[in-house]
Specification:
- The chain has 274 residues and is α+β, with helices and mostly antiparallel strands.
- Helices cover 58% and strands 19% of the residues.
- The protein has a 7-stranded antiparallel beta sheet, with helices on one face.
- Helix 1 crosses helix 3.
- The radius of gyration is 57 Å and the shape is rod-shaped.
Length: 274
Amino acid sequence: MKKAIKIIFDILTWILLIFAFIVTALVISSDKNNGTASLFGYMPFTVESDSMLPTFSKNDLILDKKVDSISELKKGDVITFWTMSGSQRIRNTHRIVEVKNENGNYSFVTRGDNNPANDTTDVMAGDIIGKWNGTRLKGFGKAMNFLKTRKGFFICIIIPMGIFFIFELYKLIVTIIEMRRPEVLTESDEEEIKRRAIEEYLAEQKKNAAENAPAEAAAKTESAAEQAVEKAEDTAKALEAAAEELKENTSENAPETAESAESESSTDTAENKS
């Protein structure tokens, strides 16, 4: 629930910020364009009278588009233009009822939908501000006029934007504090950390065993070879000792054998003489 409220609050905050940016851009552009606010070629106007009833009425907000080519304007289009009211130059929005073209010099006869007669002065091409694109926001013109005042701009734009930036700064400070605060582990978190540590330890042992297996096998082979060499040397020494002993025995028994042979030979000779 708290998370949903936070998301909704963030969305509303950003909508307010975008709205404030748009209004600020319009106010700044109106100061640079003879009081006519413009944003990307679109101009919002507050309807000042009921002369265009029932198309739109007083205090409605309408949206005009900048005219790229005067020759494209035709009968039936609704245009906003500069006109004179006594000694004062004002904006007016009426419908074109006739287009005049004298050797490429355009002028327009206009009339309000709620007026019985045409406007007394034709509209020259240089007096045209924009063409109505059909957008109408009922009653929003008063709000726009209020926002254009210093009081309205301060209340509806400056204060909300200040609150927004203070709140964002507060969230940033809270985030930094949370990042620096030691993390409190729950029992389940501790169990998970232990399990991961055991798994990592077993994996490391398995890896070490796999890496050391060839070395251990080579060491065992080398040890067996050394033992075999030692046994072979012991066997050779034993054979050599046996050979020496046999040789010695043979040398000692040789005289006795000769004497025995000589005795036997003498006996045989005596017997033969007899």
